[in-house]
Amino acid sequence: MDAHWKKIWIGSAGNMVEWFDWFVYAVFASYFANSFFPKGNDTANLMNTAGIFAVGFFMRPVGGWLLGRVGDRRGRKAALTLTVSLMSTSAVLIALAPTYAVAGYGGVAVLLVARLLQGLSVGGEYAASATYLTEASAPGRRGFASSFQYVSMTAGQILGLGLQILFQHTMTKSQLTDWGWRIPFVVGAAGAAVIFYLRRSMLETEAYQESGAAADERGTIRALLRHKREALLVVALTMGGTVAYYTYTTYLTKYLSNSAGMAKPTASLVSFCALVVFAALQPLAGALSDRIGRRPLLITFAVGATFLTVPIMTLLKHAGGFWPALGLSLLGLVIVTGYTSINACVKAELFPTGIRALGVALPYALATALFGGTAEYVALWFKKGGMESGYYWYVAGCAAVSLVVYLTMRETRDIDLKRVGRDETEPARPDAVPAS
Fold first, then answer.
1. What would the CATH number be for the domain defined by 3-430?
2. What parts of the sequence cross the membrane (predicted)?
3. pLDDT tens column, 286-344
């Protein structure tokens, strides 16, 4: 197997398992929500589980800092091995968490600890895999190669939805809510153990090995502060993309069943089919960015999300059947592809090698915690307050902010990662990159 493809395959496979464990919580939340809280209002219990889901996001900046530092100081391989170990531990905890009937709120405490560990893991996984896939790719193919990050992320979610659909057709509702929801977490823990073994033998990237950064400067906040503009740019360009992504992925199934009145099995099937197409689009869009640049795709996403989110979400609420819901979901995800397919490489291209993992990890994790992690909770808050359409405008507004950033930033496609990596003393300014 070609060395580039071996690196991409191992990095992507691990990323898939990581995000399977991360997303399966949201996928099965509607089945275990009443197991950890007193029975009563289903929407209130979903909000409680969504709140715990959001807490995991607020641990991601800590994971971004800690594991980003490991990635810059010890190597991308070391960071990726550590992230999958943490994720395996958290999956085991959720699989064994006691219910409210057994331990009262003790089960909630276990869930909370597990989500904090998951947040720590994913906070480092995103940046480590984004950096690894970008650095491991051949020159002129970074957009294509790094797009596999969202292919693998989406594959993890597809596997989670696939298990849910399988269980919906092979288990009774009581079996699924009593114990069936635990099975995906057992599967995730086992998958993480396999990936841990594979990642121990993975190859380090040439860009990292050839970096001339001083050892005491690698992965430090001091070094990151010399790149404040790039860090702020990562936050701003992430804002709209992360809200839109979580709206059309993790929240979509709940929205279709809880707001549009669609049966849960049908809502799950809509999400599953839409995500399969979405995953297939990522390499195509990534390859396109290698030809025409990153900015055209980012701008297309932001324009679409700003002006089409409100009509898409409004029509989805009244879709009624499988095919209209699938068509609208696909439209939303096609728009989001302009962001997801290339955001990993765009962020990695902004920073020199010695600070690249931390530079991507920390500002991205902060933006995702503030906007992506709270998306589902904000949506349910608007719904509970009788103002559900307010959430549509919130998503559109976040996309509009990112649109301004995309219109003013410079192109990053042609940057030489190794050249930037050898010059650690000069901040890598976005406006110093030649526009294509």
1. 1.20.1250.20
2. 49-67, 103-127, 179-198, 231-248, 268-285, 297-316, 322-346, 358-379, 391-409
3. 999 999 999 999 999 999 999 999 999 999 999 989 999 999 999 999 999 999 999 99
